[in-house]
Amino acid sequence: MQHNILIVDDEESIRWVLGTSLEKSGYKVDYGENGAQALDKASSKDYSLILLDINMPDLDGFEVLTQLKNSDIESPIVLITAQNTVSNAIESIQMGAYDYIAKPFDLEAVGRVAKKAIESYKSAKKIKENKFSDESISLSEIVGSSGEMLDIYKTIGRVADKDITVLITGESGTGKELITKAIHYNSLRKNNKIVSVNISAIPKELIESELFGHEKGAFTGAVSFKKGRFEEANGGTLNIDEIGEMSVDLQSKLLRVLEEKKIYRLGSENPVEVDVRIIASTNRKLEEEVEKKNFREDLFYRLNAITVNLPPLRERKDDITKLIDHFTNKYSDELNLEKKIFSDEAKQMLVDHNWPGNVRELENVVKKVMVLSPDRIISKKILTEEINFNQNKNEARELSEIDKIISDQIEKLLEDADYDSKDIYNMVINRFERHLIEILLKKTNGNKKKTAEILGINRNTLSKKIKELEIKSG
Ligand SMILES: Nc1ncnc2c1ncn2[C@@H]1O[C@H](COP(=O)(O)OP(=O)(O)OP(=O)(O)O)[C@@H](O)[C@H]1O
Ligand SMILES: [Mg+2]
């Protein structure tokens, strides 16, 4: 295969010297005379290398480099510098250039750098493509033969090759991503891309441009044009993960895109047609979110034409032993470990556990004890330690979730607070105190003695507080 190289320099003699030499080495060469041409050409062809002069009028090489790095273009870039600007060259590598060459150059050295850059580009591309095909998934890799899982396989079979939107729900770690891939790789779109975008992982203000892309200058920081995930997934599947986290405003825009099959990049009035199949997933109960007005009803109905609801692992305990076998096989292959066996007691313990983190948690526990266990037979003891460790982690996480709720509520209280009163401390504490006392009075059926005891305060203090805080005490 002949590789394309783009040479960008404002001096014609330099373009000529470099071009002739590289053509002699068998490369195909295109030329740009300035930064604007560089950007234009780089986005129109897949160059295996771009040679870019730093010193150019208007857009200089650094600016071009920054813009190329911010766009989808992955071609390696080698900067051409005057000899006295080696510090520039260091900076350019830090900015993502592959290498630099200094003028006046030794053509042999240029040839070597070009070859190295092209090789590394080729292998990076290969890794990406391979990784992609490794990810393809067949139904046989999904473990589980409980009734619910069998229904899910049937649904996948029925809908995979139709272009219907699918909504996948289920607690964290139940296999939503796995099912998403299974649908894609069993669909007519399997030879095209599956692109995933996780709404909860992107800062709110960037989600729209991530999905729909943007034109250069659409907002501060939009230094170059960028394709959105919709365009990237064109012809294939777009997985919108954690869709329950999307703002209502953006939900309206998404609905319009689904209806019109067109997107508008930020900063552009021109529609771009997209042919994308949507698989949305969430660990929220979207019906409840609709009721709370956090999720648009029309979008919900549009998405849930087909819903796959993945049951939590604790509700399909029969699958646990099969999953254990699956993961022990998987990790003895992947980690090159001796195949280990769980003792009956240990197995029973795994079956009895309630797995708040579902299949992912089970997978992690199996993997970890396989590595940790010195013996071929995995004992209950080593497993207990691992499960307890996980449990503590979960409890800590739940606690921090409560803290987050409390801190959110305090912030809300502060929004309406009168800062001039200089009494914020009492205002906030009283609010909490009142609820605490009310809740306990209710629990004790209005028994003040018992409430005071539980709270660990004096009965008179409680009565005083009930009066002060105007609590109805029965
Ligand atoms: N039925 C299954 N058979 C085999 N492996 C499974 C199964 N379900 C889940 N897994 C494995 O468990 C792990 C977690 O699954 P996955 O990432 O699909 O969960 P998820 O529902 O998307 O979780 P989250 O909501 O946290 O994103 C993965 O490594 C996946 O391969
Ligand atoms: Mg997931």
Description:
The protein has 474 residues and is an alpha/beta fold. It contains 19 helices and 14 strands. The strands form 4 sheets. A 5-stranded parallel beta sheet has the order 2-1-3-4-5, sandwiched between helices. A 5-stranded parallel beta sheet has the order 7-8-11-6-12. It has a two-stranded antiparallel sheet with strand order 9-10. The termini are far apart. Mean pLDDT is 87; it is low at 130-135. Residues 142-144, 170, 172-178, 283, 326, 359-360, 363 line the site of adenosine-5'-triphosphate.
- Please indicate the percent range of residues in DSSP E strands (runs of 2 or more): 5-15%
The biggest beta sheet reads: 5 strands, parallel
- Helix-residue proportion: 40-55%
How many helices does DSSP assign?
19
Summarize the structure.
It is built from 19 helices and 14 strands. It has helices spanning 12-24, 35-42, 61-70, 86-94, 107-134, 147-159, 176-185, 207-212, 229-232, 248-260, 286-291, 297-303, 318-334, 344-352, 358-372, 380-415, 424-443, 448-455, 459-468; strands spanning 4-8, 28-32, 49-53, 77-82, 99-103, 166-169, 194-198, 237-241, 262-264, 271-273, 277-282, 306-309, 341-342, 377-378.
List the keywords:
474 residues; alpha/beta; Rossmann fold; Helicase, Ruva Protein, domain 3; five-stranded parallel β-sheet; 14 strands; binds adenosine-5'-triphosphate; binds magnesium ion
